[in-house]
Amino acid sequence: MPPSSITPSDTSSSASLNSIAEALPELLPAERPESAPQAKILLVDDEPKSLFALQELLSGLGQNLMVAQSGEEALRLALKNDFAVILLDVRMPGIDGFETARLVRGRERSRLTPIIFLTAAADEMSSMFRGYEVGAVDYLQKPVVPEILKSKVAVFVELHRKNERLRESEEKLRRLAAHLISIREEERAHIAREIHDELGQVLTGLKMEVTWLAKRLKEKPLVEKTDSMCKLIDTTVQTVRKIATGLRPEMLDDMGLIAAVGWQAKEFQKRTGIRTRAKLPPEVKLDIDVSTTMFRIFQEILTNVARHSRATRVDLDLSVAEDRVALEVVDNGVGIAESDLNGKKSLGLLGMNERALLFGGEVRITGTPGHGTRVSVSIPLRERT
Amino acid sequence: MKVIIADDHPVVRQGLRQMLALEQDLTVVGEAKNGQEVVELSRRVPWEVAVLDYNMPGKNGLELIKELRQRYPGRAVLILSMYPEDRYAVRALKAGAAGYLTKESAPEELVSAIRKVAGGGRYVTPTLGEKLALELEDNRGKPLHETLSDREYQVMWMIASGKTVRQIADELFLSPNTVSTHRTRILRKMNMKSNAELMHYAIAHHLVD
């Protein structure tokens, strides 16, 4: 909520500023080191002469210098741009430098933007402390020593670059993880289908052939042979089914998330002896990708319960609202420790989070030592299909 | 009896055809390899029983059952599926199928199922019948294993899985004495005398694999 005092004001002075910029194109960044995009630097001073001097001083850095002649103007620019650093004159008519800094810092986008206050010598220490209170990063006395100013600004530009690069590489990693998850899911589904349908059906056909043969046989040893062949085929079919379901439960595709979660809960109880109670909503068709995500997270939660919790009981609650699907799984085991939540080994937990994040969802895990672990998953629904 | 068979796999159709050809009273009058073909075939030829794969390309099993039932209320649809009965059979029956068989079923079972449903009956396998009966029973009162505490349930499951007191004690970080106490209480609550009885119960109620 912009304070009402921030209104376009003093257009004449900003116009004069623009004319300065236009008149001096050669002062605007010409050479750029590497091919990195230019960092934006905001220069704020009510004195056109000082601004001009600052521009000239910093032009050698080859960055994108933007100027503002008042606090209001600076705020407006900070709303639309990410600055590597803001050079801020303390004494200005209207909103002064400190107030400007406070307002800039108050906005999410510019919350962490470094600010260097420029102040006249007379301001001395008291203003310096005032400056740090509102979150300044640095402070220079006028008249500034060119070399000091340049090197300080260069440091922030470099920091900004590194942050940008870090953000980009995080984004890339996330996209890569998402890609890998979806590829793995597709491959699993594909292999499961191939195994189940092709292999399974051939085995069925084979069994029918053997049965046909058996009906024509009279000798007992031969009939016994065909019998044992049939049994062998049956066992193989069961194995095929188990492998296929392990790769991707066919229920998820033909009956949906709710039935699949109910089935998985029963299977879990049967496999581990840990009593598992499921509270499920009436069946409803949900987006298949969201369903897969939720189902895989659920499986990961159960794996953790079986491996680490020493629980005797699991309660799960799956619910579907207009705009989201939520799952809560509570066990009565030893409770996950805070240190395990962020440990390097907790790749499984990280994986759950990443999966949920892909769909804008979240996973929250809380544990109380001795009193079990609670995992809450929530994923927004894009639209019902 | 006139039968149509549908399966997307040629081997299965061939097997079915050969098998049914051995029966004097059954005639295969047509074959289809997907849902759409079933619908067309059902209009074109006279038939009494349709033996369908649950999962064919085009239309899913449930839709197909519903559609055939709506158009031909007097005729029977029998599902022959790769999918395990415990998860799919009830749904198929609810949708109007006269019976549900998995492809592991013995061929004789299929033949007798066809005869049964052609006469207007319903066919469920003995396993499914037992399961449905158990569910009825369970609905009437709490099944015995529900009277156990969570810990007792776990110990019961381990006994039923064939584990010894020693193994159970090790796995649960309990003393063998405690495990034995649990066991005694479990047997009393469930009115049983031996581990063997427990195992039998657990298998019948699908509490273990």
Describe the structure.
The complex is a heterodimer of chains A (385) and B (209). With 385 residues, chain A is α/β, with parallel strands linked by helices. Helices cover 55% and strands 16% of the residues of chain A. Chain A is built from twelve helices and ten strands. Chain A has helices spanning 11-23, 48-58, 71-80, 97-106, 124-133, 146-216, 220-247, 250-254, 257-272, 288-309, 338-342, 347-358; strands at residues 40-44, 64-68, 83-89, 115-120, 138-142, 275-279, 313-320, 324-331, 362-367, 373-380. In chain A, α6 runs antiparallel to α7 and α10 runs antiparallel to α12. Chain A is elongated. Chain B has 209 residues and is of the alpha/beta class. Chain B folds into two domains: 2-125, 3-Layer(aba) Sandwich (Rossmann fold); 144-204, Orthogonal Bundle (Arc Repressor Mutant, subunit A), CATH 1.10.10. In chain B, strands 2-1-3-4-5 form a five-stranded parallel sheet, sandwiched between helices. In chain B, α2 runs parallel beside α3, α7 (150-160) crosses α9 and α7 packs across α10 (195-204). The interface between A and B is large, with 35 and 36 residues.
Which descriptors apply to this entry?
heterodimer, A: alpha/beta, Heat Shock Protein 90, 3 domains, 5-stranded parallel β-sheet, 5-stranded mixed β-sheet, 55% helix, elongated, disordered N terminus, B: alpha/beta, Rossmann fold, 2 domains, 10 helices
